[in-house]
Amino acid sequence: MNKVLGIIIVLILIGVGWLIVSNRTASNESNRQAQSSPASQTTEKTPDFALQDFGGKTVRPADFAGKSLVINSWAVWCPFCRKELVDFVAAQKEFGNKVVIIAVDRAETRDVAKKYADDLGVTDGLIFLLDPSDSFYQSIGGFSMPETIFVDQKGLVVDHKRGPMDINEMRTKIEKLLPK
Known about the structure:
Strand order of the largest sheet: 1-8-7-4-5-6-2-3
Helix content: 40-55%
CATH class of the largest domain: Alpha Beta
Shape: globular
Number of strands: 8
Number of helices: 5
CATH topology of the largest domain: Glutaredoxin
Radius of gyration: 20 Å
CATH superfamily of the largest domain: Glutaredoxin
Order of helices and strands: HEEEEHEHEHEEH
Strand content: 15-25%
Largest sheet: 8 strands, mixed
Oligomer: single chain
């Protein structure tokens, strides 16, 4: 009798797990479709924040008024962020002063984040900001890693990429930000 009860419990747990995974998959598909919907891409303003860079200087989106921005949320523990940060540096070099790329670290110490950026050789290639309270990630409704918003010269979020990108996708999204 105990074996039968144990098997029933295991089957119930497997069924519940399957339902949870199915619901997440359906929810993720809905979110993906919403992200690609033009109506959802141009309605929100850039989240306001005041975060410090590695040197302790406070940086705000308003500091870049009239500029196109790419703001990436990353963390040392994110395996996709490593390659993406290197690609963002390449994109920043390629586009120069036509765009400002900002990398916002999620709730890690300055020492941890800076060592990671130093080890990658990207520290001087981007504006790195520290977000000890993870407020930026929360303000963009983050639920994956990395996440990146693309902001036009009017301060409107025109694209929100959830998950990693390669350099070609970055180029395409940045080019859409630039004035014609």
